[in-house]
Amino acid sequence: MKSDIPIYDIQNFKAYKNDGILVSRFGYYSKQHQHLHSAHRHSFYHLVFFTEGAGKQQIDFKKFDVKPGLIYFMIPGQVHSWDFKTEPEGYIINFSSDYLSSFLLKPDYLEKFDFFSGQPDLQVLTLPITVQHIIALIFEDILKEGQNEQPIDDDLVKTLLLRLFIEVSRSTDSSQKSIHNSYNHTLLKSFQHLIEQNYEKLRLPKEYAALLYITPNHLNALCNDFLGISAGTLIRERVMLEAKRLLINLDLMVAEIADKLNFDDQSYFIKFFKKYEGITPEKFRKLNTTYHGTK
Fold this sequence. Notes:
Order of helices and strands: EEHEEEEEHEHHHHHHHHH
Helix content: 40-55%
Number of helices: 11
Structural class: alpha+beta
Largest sheet: 8 strands, mixed
Number of strands: 8
CATH class of the largest domain: Mainly Beta
């Protein structure tokens, strides 16, 4: 099926040192890939650190300012676009989902970092000046390693990449929110995984609570404690996000989207969408499938 929103794989880009990673200065990358300024998806992890530039970007339909000192992280599947007012500069890294898998014993290692949560508000960070300097030096070391023609593996690059994640994590308060109660944090992560796997069919907190062997009240309490929202809201936000992602595919009729998301009928889907978004699905589609369309 032809999709209105392109999905790019890591193989769509020139390799840096290994087929699973691309590293570049952002100004050069931005000019070489003008098509990436409009809405698109990645099948890989993606991060950018801005040292210059101004404008806006959207991650899963949430707007953020572009400014020096800002770093953002994205996981596979998210929808993204840029709208720069001045020439941007900085660094970019794209890496495949399995790039670090042979290097780490824990396959879910990246999930320990809040900025790889898939929640846009946790993925966009403004770094302190001292940390900006450290991060820039790490990027420069990674770029330098890419010029090394010796036939060695990527272990040094992977180590530098992990150091970058840790340095950013240490500099932000968000990474400390979850450590005071590791049991409940593990439960929350499990709940989020279950939502990702079942949001098309399971809509009630009690259904997820049963899968987690806890009470609905406990599930609701931990969502409120960690995220400040109810369990039901977390489920609904995931359904709404998928609805938005599907709506910008012009090949799909609204009725088909309603069916894909397991709504009883198109009318119920339209009411649901309008209740929580404030506009109809067709209005959202019109506003978000024109150039620089925004809500």
